DNA sequence: GTCTATAACGCGATAGAC
DNA sequence: GTCTATCGCGTTATAGAC
């Protein structure tokens, strides 16, 4: 933002790339906030531009299209979420994987409410890329569940696909409730969900 | 629908109300289908008109605005769902209420896939009325859970709000999976969910 | 009761000045 | 690199003919 003497180097074009990346980051940030509070349909190019303090045309200089901006924002929040969850899961032994998954998901989305709305919009409307594929979500979790059962030596029959889908939906609902009510205790909710899952998983 | 000789009374203007109601019904039906396959944002006045075989202006003759059409459609699917679920719940003793609720929800939405998409759009975007209030959904279910526990004489501590929210989210996810994969066995999924709930509820 | 015609607006995107 | 200006399209909604 501020202009230091070094930034005055007009000879090197690479310098401009740096400020361009800052602009891209700013635009993504503005878009996340806009989608969070006005929804995907209410997020127009002009409002993104207004939020960033530039014009529509200027936005389209940094991104080829409006969809590209939204896609970048979508990818950004999704990467942050999956990264956080993966880190949490890898930090515990296999038996604790499902519990870590649930708590990491709920915790991350609680700490980043703006990301939350963006993600649900993306799932519903295919905001960024094409159609949303639900198996991308439940398959990793199902693997986690299988690993936990194996680590505990449980061999009984269980529909892990449905269990994974159920857990995913429950997490979404808990996060949505938190979004609607700041006073909702997501920690206690996570505890109850984890208890239900563990009881089913290791039965 | 069919015209009996009595309906031929041309003197009474009330007769016209009958065909108008048929048109309204048709427009609502078209809108449900449109929202189901193109989403709320992709449902425009012209497409509704095209689907009904009339013009945009004709649509706005029967409804005061586009939002009124969508609201009517939203109300229609919601009434059908709640009616079906309420009927199913009232047909069983209190201990079976939660199970009946889960099976009725999943069953109804499986039989009416077009309704499903409309409902989720309405929840996400406030398609019809204003903002969606989650407590409208979990409170009735929480009452059901409390009644079931009381009928069984269970007095242990349990967060029924979170359990109700969890069940709702799980149902949504199961229905969504069915929407994405015709081969998904919703009956088995309902069985697993019911088992999880009963185990938690009566513990 | 349904139509044609059109108003009035917001949208995404482009061209070209600077 | 960012601007102004504008195009072309789709939208909701209205006015008035028939």
TrEMBL record, chains A, B:
Chain residues forming the annotated DNA-binding region: 44-63
Alphabetical keyword list: DNA-binding
PROSITE patterns: HTH_TETR_2 (PS50977)
Pfam families, A to Z: TetR_N
Domain HTH tetR-type: from-to ranges: 21-81
Protein name: Transcriptional regulator, TetR family
Species whose genome carries this gene: Actinoalloteichus caeruleus DSM 43889
Lineage: Bacteria, Bacillati, Actinomycetota, Actinomycetes, Pseudonocardiales
